## 1
Amino acid sequence: MSEVQTKVRIRLRVNGAEHEVDVEPRWLLSDVLRHQLGLTGTHVGCEQGVCGACTVLVDGRPERSCLMFAVQAEGHEVTTVEGLTPAEGLSPLQAAFQAHHALQCGFCTPGMLVTAEALLRENPNPTEEQVREALSGNVCRCTGYQFIVDAVLAAAREGRS
Amino acid sequence: MKPVAFSYHRPRTLDEALALLRSEPDCKVIAGGQSLIPLMNFRLSRPGALVDINEIEGLNRVEKTDGGLRIGALVRHQALAEHPLVREVCPVLAEAAGHVGHWAIRNRGSLGGSLAHADPAAELPAAMVALDARFEVASADGVRQVPARSFFLGYLMTDLAPDELLVAVHVPAQTGRAFGFHEFARRPGDFALAGAFAEVGPGGAGAVTWFGVSGGPERCELTFPEDAAAREAAFAALVEPFDPGQDAPYRRHLAVQAAERAYQQAVGGRG
Ligand SMILES: Cc1cc2nc3c(=O)[nH]c(=O)nc-3n(C[C@H](O)[C@H](O)[C@H](O)COP(=O)(O)OP(=O)(O)OC[C@H]3O[C@@H](n4cnc5c(N)ncnc54)[C@H](O)[C@@H]3O)c2cc1C
Ligand code: FES
Ligand code: FES
């Protein structure tokens, strides 16, 4: 069992940058993003896939970073909420969240933004039902969801105009 | 809490994976990790070693065969829901796959993982039983074929040995039979409170396969009565012996309604 605790060196591609990190195989991607790379935008709520706060894009698709070991992300492109944020100001989706009061405490917001961004890239013109379905795996304890749905639909409309 | 330490293997070939499954003590396959990692995070599962099959070439293919479809174990739920061949040859399977968990779960969770995990409320094990699929199961000794209808042995239990890997499933084309699907869940993506696949052949002969209301998929053959009240009575009699656990009368009621809606979908030709 001596090899069990040994760290392995992996190359992670996150938000377009290469990182070399030493990780134990049992470390979750969510924890490595936060503690090794300092990308604390990815939040951790439940560690069982239910809350959606830890959602990141893996090769462009939303996936739970709490249900993946960091070693498994090698060779894949990871995008966190930091990677969806421009150097200056807000992305159109973030601006719509602000304008529509789509966040209160902000705990769920990174997961919401990542999931909604992926939805709009795949389907720039979603119906309200499609927005609700896409976000059904993200729990928000504050807003009651309506303003989040409004914000995503508004961002979609703006993207069209 | 965090998972206990384990040794991690990421084989590139099936043979390597099968050799590891045989040689590593206390070893588990990891596919999408969407059932296994929650269990490990809460230390309900403490494998000493993981064999990660995600980088094995060819496990995620969908192919047309003489008899129907061959679907690789690593095909993700979202891919299954969207795949043109699955939608063409077996639309009811694509529809059911779209009901598995949330989008982010479907992007990573795999068909083989769902079948090997055998959650009683899972859609895909019931789909395989309803469709009379056959599983390709490999070990270092070779490949054996297991009918879906004898694979599921009860709550989280299957016919798989610890050193075996589910490689692919064979789903026969549905000639002369129409299929329908319906499930009730509290929100989209939640596990079903009750769900059903209906299979209707000539003269109303067919079957209902239920999930979420027993220890595993439950397939019951019947001739569907044409009269709606008689159908409801027939479904109610069939679900009576099931033990859904919590809220049993309510869940049996949902099981009857799910069967009716699945039947309606099948005879409406949308199955
Ligand atoms: C929030 C949430 C909601 C969910 N909702 C649903 C739902 O509504 N319906 C539903 O059906 N499921 C649901 N799931 C579970 C999901 O479907 C999983 O993807 C699936 O059960 C397991 O697939 P996996 O590829 O992730 O397997 P893993 O988690 O990697 O493995 C599961 C088990 O199967 C074994 N295994 C995996 N692949 C193989 C193989 N090829 N051969 C042999 N053994 C193998 C593993 O050793 C392990 O014991 C949900 C999960 C979450 C986190
Ligand atoms: S922390 Fe990953 S889904 Fe809740
Ligand atoms: S804003 Fe507080 S959880 Fe969503």
## 2
Amino acid sequence: MTVEATDTGSGPPPEGAKAPTIGNRVQHVLHAHPSLGPLVVLVISAIIFDLINGRFFSAANLSIMLQEVAVIGLLALGQTVIILTAGIDLAVGAAMILAQMVMAGLALTSGWPVWLAIAGGLVVALVTGLVDGLLVTRFKVPPFIGTLGTLGVFTALGLLYANGQTLTPSAGNFLLWPGNLIKIGSFSLMTGVIVMLVLYLIVGYALGRTAWGKHVYAVGDDPEAARLVGINTARLLLSVYVLAGLIYGIAAWVQIGRVGDASTNISSTLNLDSITAAVIGGVSLFGGRGIVLGTLFGALIVQVFQNGLALAGVQDLYQQLAEGLLVIAAVAVDQWIRKVRT
Amino acid sequence: MNDGSPANARKEPVLSATALRKAYGRVEALRGADFELFPGEILAVIGDNGAGKSSLIKCLSGASSPDSGEIYLDGKKVTFRSPQDAKDAGIETVYQTLAVAPALDIASNLYLGREIRKSGLLGSVLRHMDIARMRREAREHVNRLGIQTLQDITQPVETLSGGQRQAVAVARAAAFGSKVVILDEPTAALGVRESAQVAAIIKQLRDHGLPIVLISHDMPSVFELADRIHVQRLGRRAAVLSPQTHTMEDAVAIMTGARAA
Ligand SMILES: Nc1ncnc2c1ncn2[C@@H]1O[C@H](COP(=O)(O)OP(=O)(O)OP(=O)(O)O)[C@@H](O)[C@H]1O
Ligand SMILES: [Mg+2]
């Protein structure tokens, strides 16, 4: 790997008598650009998988990978904003499933106009975020515990509301809009993927360019310091959880569109997958560090490994193994670059 | 109780407090502490470790709220519910813990909580920051204060030395304090040259008419800088001394309780 070759000179030059070692320079570059590591991993692993199986870079396969990544990418986006505040959300999947059942239920069972049903689902998702946010800010419950509790609550509510049904919108229903495919030659781009990318741009902008974003990083970095400089930390955290909830609601819609129906029978690993994507993407679980672009790379890496290993004919078991090793490696790298000093 | 030099007797204090009490669980950090800061003066606050100096200024800066007692700003009773309230009133503080965000760069830290926004809707609605202007003004500001140790304004604070971090906190308070600047041990981690620089900044602020509260264990610099010295002992104000009429030995004796005030 030639990470140091991409040094743009923005990493602070280490001063003093000691000449910087290559390790030092890599550490500094990664410290300044924490999403560089995941990008390198993404590119290299994609190339290796293509060498193993030439179908990897085929238009059909790329299309499928992007479709697969849309939902988890959105969940990981909400998760990332929460992790940046040194929090964690264990209820992402449950919140999404609940919102999804409400959307489909209101439209198909209760006969609401589809747009109103979608809005209703988004409001429910927003409320799940509000509940988590109030637990963390008003009742001072640690995010890990609070969202562990709401994981159970939201899961149960989703199951109760769904009542064991699978709701299938008929073709052309606006609920399925995110699943529409846009043909570009032999490549087909799902509308939901565009939705995801737009949301990444919006959240990336808010985090990087607005005062709100600075405060997210400051609160995650050192909440007491943030309070002392005059940031209303409770209000900020609440806004973060509500935003995350809204994003999970949009993920719910994309999920209905991609799968073509709404059921509670969805992978139970969504929570951990969203955390995995963020962590592999260089977002520090200690808060205050990382960017959403890294999370996008992280989500893509997980997808590339699952898809690439499957194409290579490797068992599921090894996909899990690879994912686990990636997480450990990412956390180890994070610990290392956090020690950076000039 | 001694109420300071006669010159101040006729003036109204800018910031004052009466009978402040603050308990942390069983520990009584403040037991009826009084406080007075007069216009244009440097007031040093000295006292043993645990005497309640930081607890006192945290009440004055809105970082914590006293269990009882009153605080007056320009003679008017004030209640600070948050640090932001005190900041809005013009009180800027360097905390002993510094209160900086390590992962953010120097410019971001200087403007944390009061980011300069772009003009127009972009700034007012989206709170879009004018990063270039913040960096430019941060650099100018640091230069004006003569803080040479902060070279690259875009450097993350966590890569700075302890003394440089302290310089960031001091620069922030100096930049935005419009009524009172409070410094809780601002030179604790500083070398000789940097301490002298902070002393110069304190004088510079005083010369602009800003009253300053300086908490310090460094007796020589306290006696050099201060107009009056508030001695804190066991959660109360034990005495107010003047560097002209008292010696360092007097101050230490009162501070440690070896002699009554
Ligand atoms: N947040 C807190 N929780 C519990 N006890 C506290 C807290 N803050 C201060 N105390 C206690 O209150 C007392 C006064 O502390 P304070 O920090 O005000 O002293 P200080 O005069 O600033 O001391 P130093 O010179 O060491 O900074 C001490 O006994 C301290 O242990
Ligand atoms: Mg103290």
